Amino acid sequence: MKLSTHVFQRISDQGMPIISVDNPQASLELSLFGGHVLSYMPKRDNRQRLWMSPKAVMDGSKAIRGGIPVCWPWFGAAAEPALPAHGFVRDQMWQVLRVDDDNDLTRIQLQPEFSHLAGGGQLELMLELLIGEQLTVNLVTHNRQSKSLRFGGALHSYFRVKHIDQVVVDGLSGAYMDKVGNLLVEETPSPYVITQETDRIQLNAVSDVHIREAGQQTAIGFSGHDSIVVWNPWQDKSAQMGDMTTDGYQQMLCIEAAITQGIELAPGHSHTLTQIIG
Ligand code: BG6
User: How far apart are the CA of 262 and the centre of ligand 1, in A?
Assistant: First the structure.
């Protein structure tokens, strides 16, 4: 089904609605399950920016391992044990609100089926993708209630790398909280290389990070975040995860635009969490 000049919708072999964008600048695939970007490839170099696990479950029974999961309205473990980690929008159906094609840019806006918070509060959520020479992902939270509400989340992007051993991350600085080290606060290393299981909440919310490897680099821009999460499960954890291959960790690195400390949103206000992938 054609949604616009450059945008089509199809049903995957596993019965999930998939949106495909192919415009003069880039191609992208998006799953309506999770409002989840699956792939993004700018045409200037035809290099896939996002990593997808070969064992990702794509039938709607659990969140997809790879691409850009949307974590909202909380990051990480929930306050109540019965609730899922990383919120409840990455495993529900989303719907398309709007599609626009300009010559060089395609804009898609989506919303999840529901966005209620525990405790009865309701925030409105919208995901906007601007697909062109760069991919801009805007996650917009709007408070239409008469009281302030607190939320968190992340654009949990999985970047594809040639080999994790060759990666240097540039741009991170200051203190980080080490989730594999009892949340101890450590100083950001320089050079920033990944040599073991890494799960860090970088507390200095810088606006530009680069993943550098021989012959290529990926620029990542951020705004509206209070931290940047860097995650690689390494070998043992990959082997334990049903939707990752044992050596899957070698080709990926998550660098997430995150709200880990929480944002208090006043009535009538909105907040935009942005990640720009170049
Ligand atoms: C990261 C967290 O953002 O996501 C990690 O910091 C977590 O602690 C990882 O393991 C993956 O989470 P999930 O729920 O997708 O397996």
Answer: 17
